[in-house]
Recover the amino acids of this structure.
């Protein structure tokens, strides 16, 4: 399997507050990595460093062989284009309808023409089950619907990897399922994914590898079975016991 | 932190230096006297005047066009003819006239001005060309109460700001309460509404008002007048000896031929036609022109204000110190100084570098630059209130910072700030009225002109007020409509 993302000794500090203390990890093409861990452990910061939404303090992030930390801003736009991102708060463009949300970046960044972009957008909306909402504005959609549109919007750029930053945390419980279903389908289609989530069920069923993050570094890595059934690290054991006790 | 502080001081210093650079030329005006030659070379003699002072100078309709007429204008025409040049009349507030001389906006000032010692320190004067006494205008029904200046002890007495009458009253009517206003028309209005009890004015002026308003009467003020502190003369910039000599020659002729009497008769005729029909409808063209200018100034200022305001907002939000600090300082400085001073600074201050800056242009520039500072803050507020997630989502899709700003942030920000922007436009309609002080013929200016022409105080104010309201109300309806459209779109 080809290495898609390779992170070496990644550190990030906000002022004196060290959020990431040295992360190492490899994401292979086609792999689904699920990052779990307690709140405040640096999971989201780690994910946001991967596409340079946050600028790392030090360390290397190699994406398809290129060290992103050395690239100028202009080049980063070309890289981000290949790394789709889904946010906890959906972040659909509120001044545009669903169709325009999906076609804006393909048109502006990739130079696709209107017809081409619309055709692809419609296919993606079919895929997330929201084709009939193409003319709706984000504010009229439910949280679950908005997040599915957000996934479709990221996919419209034909990314090589998809980053999910707690995609179900802001959803009402009854809407979590529909979003996880879309993500599961995506995983089965062979998409490389890095998912930060609190959904342990999803991690168990879909992940190829689970990374447990706590206190700014990765305490333990392994298959879902290793992490959930035979955790080695004390912090992992402690975290899981608290989660499962709920 | 330290670096930030240093760059802050640096930008402050640069701003100060910029100000000095603007002021610097004023120190070097003392050159050889070529005043006469300069007037002859350019072929025009520019006269500054405040045309609200009949019979000296006032506005009337000649062949359907508004024109400044009066005794001073006739004197100026005679001088221009003798010099063989064309006369150009520039109108402005009385207060601004001497500044206009110093900054060479005008070659001479004829505005019923008395050559006092104080004024002689900053400008040169011709010989006196007309010598009228001082009178006090009173309400006709109160005429029996007053004899001369001494009858006004404990009374409210009105004078024109910066006038000889103000000086005289200050020195010789110490027991009276003085009220100084810029416009004689406002003083008359105050008198008629019992706010003041008398107005000290040139006898000729008092005569003009009394003749045209049956409610008024005049008495002789009986001031003790020094030899020079009487009569009216023409003011010139310092070091204009050659021009003053040439003009004195013309004044000699005026005196010998007793032309002033003829000039005053001319003025009387114009005043009679002015007062034939005092209906406001007769002056609709004045108001129409005023509304036109007010709307034009507002429209241009709004467009420039939005463009510059957006640039300043982006500058202020920039992380680059070279963009950030100038924008911050500009916004703070402009918002921290009155629009009136900015208008005067652009017209007179910048006028030192660019001599023939048209008043309209200066007024629009000042109002637009002022508006830009306010718009910048609205836009910054709007941009700040767009959730950061919107930007992150766009950037994560590979969109550039510029694309993100254009397609995501600004459209959302404008929707948020639309009501504040609308308020700014509406207040611009009102605030732009300040440009009247440098002689831009906006609605306020025309209101003054109609007051001076008709000797009516309240009616023109009422008309102008209604016109302002119609403009702001219409604009606010249009903006509301646009806002609703935007919310649905």
């Amino acid at each position: 399997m080809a290495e898609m993302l390779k992170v070496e000794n990644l550190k990030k500090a906000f002022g004196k507050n060290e959020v990431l203390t040295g992360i190492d990890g490899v994401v292979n093409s086609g792999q689904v990595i699920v990052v779990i861990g307690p709140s405040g452990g640096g999971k989201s910061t780690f994910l946001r460093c991967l596409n340079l939404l946050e600028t790392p303090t030090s360390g290397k992030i190699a994406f398809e062989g290129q060290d992103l930390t050395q690239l100028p801003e202009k080049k980063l736009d070309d890289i981000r284009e290949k790394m789709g991102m889904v946010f906890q708060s959906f972040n659909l463009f509120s001044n545009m309808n669903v169709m325009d949300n999906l076609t804006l970046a393909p048109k502006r960044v990739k130079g696709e023409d209107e017809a081409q972009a619309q055709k692809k957008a419609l296919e993606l909306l079919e895929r997330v089950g929201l084709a009939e909402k193409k003319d709706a504005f984000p504010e009229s959609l439910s949280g679950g619907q908005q997040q599915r549109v957000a996934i479709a919007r990221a996919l419209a750029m034909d990314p090589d990897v998809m980053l999910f930053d707690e995609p179900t945390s802001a959803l009402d419980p009854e809407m979590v399922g529909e979003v996880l279903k879309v993500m599961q389908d995506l995983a089965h289609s062979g998409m490389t994914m890095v998912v930060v989530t609190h959904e342990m069920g999803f991690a168990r069923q879909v992940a190829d590898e689970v990374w447990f993050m706590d206190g700014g570094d990765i305490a333990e890595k392994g298959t879902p079975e290793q992490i959930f059934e035979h955790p080695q690290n004390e912090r992992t054991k402690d975290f899981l016991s608290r989660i499962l006790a709920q | 932190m330290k670096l930030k502080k240093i760059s802050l001081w640096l930008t402050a210093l640069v701003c100060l230096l910029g100000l000095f650079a603007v002021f610097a030329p004023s120190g070097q005006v003392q050159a050889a006297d070529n005043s006469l030659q300069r007037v002859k070379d350019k072929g025009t003699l520019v006269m500054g005047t405040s045309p609200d002072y009949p019979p000296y100078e006032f506005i009337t309709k000649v062949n359907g066009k508004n024109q400044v007429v009066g005794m001073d204008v006739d004197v100026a025409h005679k001088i221009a003819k003798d010099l063989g040049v064309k006369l150009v009349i520039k109108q402005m507030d009385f207060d601004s006239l001497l500044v206009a001389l110093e900054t060479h906006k005008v070659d001479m000032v004829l505005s019923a001005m008395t050559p006092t010692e104080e004024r002689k320190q900053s400008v040169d004067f011709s010989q006196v060309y007309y010598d009228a006494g001082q009178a006090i205008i009173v309400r006709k029904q109160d005429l029996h109460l007053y004899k001369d200046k001494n009858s006004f002890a404990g009374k409210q007495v009105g004078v024109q700001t910066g006038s000889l009458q103000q000086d005289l009253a200050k020195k010789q009517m110490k027991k009276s309460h003085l009220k100084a206003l810029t416009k004689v028309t406002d003083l008359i209005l105050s008198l008629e509404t019992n706010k003041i009890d008398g107005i000290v004015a040139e006898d000729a002026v008092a005569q003009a008002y009394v003749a045209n308003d049956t409610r008024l009467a005049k008495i002789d003020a009986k001031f003790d007048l020094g030899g020079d502190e009487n009569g009216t003369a023409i003011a010139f910039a310092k070091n204009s000896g050659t021009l003053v000599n040439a003009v004195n020659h013309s004044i000699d002729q005026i005196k010998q031929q007793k032309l002033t009497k003829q000039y005053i008769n001319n003025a009387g005729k114009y005043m009679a036609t002015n007062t034939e029909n005092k209906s406001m409808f007769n002056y609709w063209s004045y108001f129409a022109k005023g509304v036109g200018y007010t709307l034009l100034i507002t429209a241009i200022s709004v467009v420039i204000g939005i463009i510059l305001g957006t640039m300043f907002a982006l500058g202020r939000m920039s992380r680059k110190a070279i963009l950030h600090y100038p924008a911050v300082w500009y916004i703070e400085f402009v918002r921290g100084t009155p629009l009136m001073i900015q208008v005067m600074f652009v017209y007179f201050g910048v006028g030192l570098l660019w001599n023939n800056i048209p008043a309209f242009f200066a007024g629009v520039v000042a109002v637009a630059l002022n508006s830009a500072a306010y718009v910048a803050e609205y836009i910054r507020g709007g941009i700040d209130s767009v959730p950061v997630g919107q930007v992150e989502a766009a950037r994560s899709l590979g969109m550039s910072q510029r694309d993100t700003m254009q397609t995501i942030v600004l459209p959302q920000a404008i929707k948020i700030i639309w009501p504040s922007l609308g308020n700014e436009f509406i207040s611009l309609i009102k605030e732009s009225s300040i440009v009247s002080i440098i002689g831009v013929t906006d609605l306020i200016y025309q209101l003054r002109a109609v007051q001076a022409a008709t000797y009516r105080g309240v009616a023109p104010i009422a008309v102008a007020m209604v016109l302002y309201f119609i403009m702001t109300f219409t604009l606010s309806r249009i903006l509301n409509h646009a806002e609703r459209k935007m919310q649905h779109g």
User: Anything to note?
Assistant: The longest strand of chain A covers residues 3-14. Residues 150 and 161 of chain A are 15 Å apart (CA to CA). Chain A touches chain B at residues 51, 53, 73-74, 77-85, 87, 89, 91-95, 104-105, 108-109, 150, 153-154, 157 (CB under 8 Å).
